TrEMBL record, chains A, B, C, D:
Its cofactor is NAD(+). NAD(+) binds at G194, E195, V196, G197, K198, G199, E215, N318. The gene is LOC106520276. Keywords: NAD, One-carbon metabolism. It comes from the Eukaryota. SUPFAM superfamilies: Formate/glycerate dehydrogenase catalytic domain-like (SSF52283), NAD(P)-binding Rossmann-fold domains (SSF51735). Substrate binds at T29, D103, E128, K158, D162. Binds 1 NAD(+) per subunit. It comes from Austrofundulus limnaeus (Annual killifish). Belongs to the adenosylhomocysteinase family. NCBIfam families: PRK05476.2-3 (NF004005). This is Adenosylhomocysteinase 2 isoform X2. Residues 163-324 form the S-adenosyl-L-homocysteine hydrolase NAD binding domain.
Length: 404, 404, 404, 404
């Protein structure tokens, strides 16, 4: 996570989070540890819980605790443990959070439910996940959002770097660790051509797969066409596909009806955001046999001997069966840190009880902090050019609606 | 332009532009003729001038006139002719425009200057060019924008299809028609990694060029890095480059200082938006000899015998030395037609004296009209899925800030 | 043609073709002029005719003549002229050729037919074309080959550089200059996946076309599969193809039966070696109308209004409608020069009355002469490594059967 | 291994290896088991040993034995065990081999050393490895080769499918399982641009790495140039490389001198044929510390804190840290089976005491057997076309020197 290191170094002696009390609820891993330590180094006091009952790395939690951070998390929490840990982050007598860093919205939900008065003191929520953002928008529509919220999930750097490249870099890996598939010449259906689907397609194409895309959105469909991918319905290709990858964020994209038509040996997996993409319930029937052949690899057998390979139990393939590159985590962690700094230091009135995207200048700063890893050298605008373009020579360089 | 044909057909007997008086100022080519005829078929009366003194195809203008459209344009107009033609579009006693379709802002400018009263009657302006949009924002900032304006230039379909693929499809062609360059292994510097630069890089990479990118914006720079392109300053590579392509929209990107360091035989061209990208004035000096070796190909000779190849006089390479695919023109023309329909039919109050992006639903519709050319088949959301995603099953499918 | 220049320079004062009399029959263009001048600079006396009645560049022929080379060729020769010119190259009383440089085998054929006694004096034939090689093998099988022949066509550099990259670099250009096709998302059938087909596929894939391959050879078919191309029969895809490109070297690959099933607007062209690939005779019938819409572009109209676009009259697209990069011509010309030098200087007995591939060391030398254009730096083997690999540290580096 | 299944099925009731006694020495894995069983099904009696003391899958050996095959092999043999096992394959009183299937040449070597008389009875040797082929050529040069040998290693299918795609498919996997590297934008030096290097480069380029190639052979170097890769010496890039991959088949390609100049965090691995490519001995010194951070991942630490990551102890990365796709193994196993059949059934005199490449027709047959996995459909030549091309309509389709 060198970008966070540069961030700390750039801060010099200054402590932009001086005195801030940050309550966090995220995965607790080596990488988030660097984030938490960075927040502390910038002046914050942190209390932290896990956003998932399985993902905590106990050694990391222990090391953070030893370093004086209050961490309430362990691998394999029960449901009750989970909420108890979250409660411990916010319910300390002598400690009221100024800032919320949430991943999925559970911490935010808990405060709404149990300690709504805390919001009086809270300067804002930083949320990174699709689910958490969805919940914030529901609150906002219901006029119940009572502090500013920063939507990190839809920042340029999150969407165009974390999401796209995380998938591009992990799809091959996830498939290779679970199967001995060769990609060259395989017919692959990718359901959904958003950033996740685009990443999967790019990687698979690089290894010689033949890719077909399904889409509901005509704009994304046209992008697929122009990039040389056939846009079809799943029904059209279902009998020919060697691999089917769900990348939609939708539910019931691959159903029993599809499974019944797949060819022998077809591999099915999910790179989308939830485990609803593949309708597994319809496969849990008498006539189909399930065989666990290795961790994360199930063979589903039809009465006629047909065998379909289901990976990662239909859950996110790259979380279970691949490593997520540090670079990708670094982009998001840096964005989260900057969003907290912005909310903490923003002058009164800049942010209202609404959901905001990160100011473009910060998105640009996050990108900037990651360029040294590529030994990349930016060109600086001359004064004359800045005048010509009518922008500040140090950015922001693009209007807010720019799509990249 | 099959999409415009489908648009007409989809309209059925209805005439969504019934009675609309459209004053237009665009290039006058076979493709815009289809647009104008489409507007007429949908009920509009049109008066048209050219936005460029050179680009009018006289036969097209004649054919339109014969079809009853009032066209004021010919190839090779003088400056005075140019403004006279524009004047004729708006200054008819018995004819006051309801809608303006502009490309570059000259028509809009003329009305502001000469007939500001006409704006009382005008329902809106549709503008497609970077320059025209820039002028509209200047008006808006100065509180002088007195009708709604639709920014077609920044619509998804314009940026992500017209701009990107037009450049991707024409850069190789432009270079091949002017030189006998082989792309494999050539070291190419692409200045700017926006949609234009991305398109050029994609095409050149496909043919085996080795590409280096210069950027001022760290986000675009990081995109280049992740896509496997070295981000450098022009200065670093200037002595090694075989080809230098300017794609910035900026001015003085390639200067005399750069030219003096280029190697013998280096090819220089411009794919950006204006002829300011290459600082040609500094090359018009005594000690440098200019040789016109073919149309659009100049050799500039240094006293020591070094020769630099300048294409298209530093103006847009693909306009002069390539064909623009109909598909690309079709995307923009369809968007323009829909923008006019929207402005004409919008209920009072939907649009104020401001600059708007095309409603997403229309962007999606433009994409939809182009899918049949690819024999692409969209998947339709089930009711259950639409509820799950909390969107209308016929779109719009994405939030406005979605970047594609 | 910088490689030929380096070749001359490397020769220093030596004249490896000193006294050699070379009779040549090739296209006469600016590039072959450099070859002929190089042969002269290396000591040869040359007499030259054209191998094609149309391809002579008259200015080049004049310039060569002015430089003292005996050139018998002009653009637009009649059949009689053609053979008269060839005759003049060999039938001089005071001049008997030592070496033959042929392209297509007509010069060789003429000597066999008219002056077989000349072969007593001839040290060898260098032949570059598929057709010429075929004719030599026919002679050899009939035991009529009476001098050594060097098969330049099948040298590594010819096949793996000239053929592959010439096609890769020119297919897009040829299509763009004749049509305004956009490649993104187009469905293209490439008939034949040899070096020509591989080059076409690589270029088209780089621009986002969706490619299907037909093959008769299972090895080439499997290569296409592994590279992510669907291998189908032309019949399977004929109704869906946007573009069909013949690259087989075979005859009647695209027939009337195929044409009848093509969709409206389908584009058909030939990149293979002869004009037999497309069975045009079956299209010259009453019910089909032919329209010449531009040079090299014919529209063939079916009674129901269907229109098929035929490019370059079914002849080689890239010869008619594209430029061939100098680099590619340089590779072949350098190979020809080296083959002549080898035959002229080979010790008695090294070559018999047989057909030979270029010695690997010369293929490597040709490649070496072209590396400076890419600023490429070879690594030199250490003595220890050469011993380990059991090869000479200056090459040849590979066994003769190595495929590259 | 579906191709072997099709081979068995195609044989119908015939047993082309009826009565053949095959002594084999290969890796003993699930895939070679299918080969051995296929040989048995085609009529052969087999006795088998392992060619490597570590690679035997004991369960496979047991299953083969249970099926009646004489297998002498287990995981973790001692040096003495190794030779004893080999001895058991050939030294049976009542059993003299007709055919040798060798991988590395140890079995062949043992017979030469201990039982030279057996060669009187042996119809030929089939050898697949680089090392084994090298040893056969040494024998041949010394006039000691006393039976025909079939060089499977240099068959088209081995080189152009097994070697190329095995590396292309496994390099990413090998790096991902051992590190959490992200490939996008990484600067990678690939030493050697043969089939192994070509495969690695293709895969890495697909994921956005920036690749530099080192080469000793100018032809391969020129191929790299044309494919858009910079050809440099390792020395030029050593300070900038993020990853260095050795693919040469040579020794001491990466030396201590290089290691001393690498940047902090540089990853070094070997995809070439032996563990001599990286000069590890020079790294086993006092001042460098070695840290085993995970299986197959060593960190080497310099006194100044610099850390270089060495994968797989410098041995073949893909053997240790990746899975080899069945498809690739299938190609080679099928080739081996056909080579044995050919040698066993060849009429007296077809093969002499020499080393042969597989007859092209068999190479084509191997390819053919693998096409069904891709649902690929070959085009059949018409009689007229076969006459035109002067080849048999069922192949072979190319001359022996064709390079693919």
């Amino acid at each position: 996570m060198p970008a966070l290191m540069i961030l700390r170094k750039n801060a010099g002696g200054e402590k932009p989070l001086n005195g801030a009390k940050v309550a966090g609820c995220t995965h607790i891993t080596a990488q988030t540890a660097v984030l938490i330590e960075t927040l502390a180094a910038l002046g914050a006091q942190c209390r932290w819980a896990a956003c998932n009952i399985f993902s905590t790395q106990n050694a990391v939690a222990a090391a953070l605790a030893e370093g004086g951070i209050s961490v309430f998390a362990w691998k394999g929490e029960s449901e009750d443990d989970f909420w108890w840990c979250i409660d411990r982050c916010v319910a300390a007598d002598s400690w009221q959070p100024d800032l919320i860093l949430d991943d999925g919205g559970d911490l935010t939900h808990w405060i709404y439910k149990k300690y709504p008065n805390l919001f009086k003191n809270i300067k804002g929520i930083v949320e990174e996940s699709v689910t958490g953002i969805y919940r914030l928008y529901q609150l906002s529509k219901a006029n119940k959002l009572c502090v500013p919220a920063m939507n990190v999930n839809d920042s340029v750097t999150k969407q165009k770097f974390d999401t796209l490249y995380c998938c591009k870099e992990s799809i091959l890996d996830g498939l290779k660790r679970t199967t001995d598939i060769m990609f060259g010449g395989k017919q692959v259906v990718v359901c959904g051509y958003g950033e996740v689907g685009k990443g999967c397609c790019a990687a698979l194409k690089g290894l010689g797969a033949i890719i077909y895309v399904t889409e509901v959105d005509p704009i994304c469909a046209l992008q697929a066409c122009m990039n040389g991918l056939r846009v079809i319905t799943l029904h059209e290709m279902i009998k020919h596909a060697d691999i089917i990858i769900s990348c939609t964020g939708n539910k019931s994209v691959i159903t029993r009806e599809h499974f019944d038509q797949m060819k022998n040996g077809c591999i099915v997996c999910n790179m989308g955001h939830s485990n609803t993409e593949i309708d597994l319930s319809s496969l849990r029937t008498e006539e189909l046999k399930w065989q666990r052949v290795r961790p994360h690899v199930d063979h589903i057998l039809w009465p006629d001997g047909k065998r379909v390979v289901l990976l990662a139990e239909g859950r996110l393939l790259n979380l279970s069966c691949s490593t997520v590159p540090s670079f990708v985590l670094s982009v998001t962690a840096t964005t989260q840190a900057l969003a907290l700094i912005e909310l903490y230091n923003a002058p009164q009135g800049r942010y209202k009880q609404d959901i905001y995207l990160l100011p473009k200048k910060m998105d640009e700063y996050v990108a900037n902090l990651h360029l040294p890893m590529f030994d990349a050298h930016l060109t600086e605008l001359t004064d004359e050019q800045a005048v010509y373009l009518n922008i500040n020579k140090h950015g922001p360089f693009k209007p807010n609606y720019y799509r990249y």
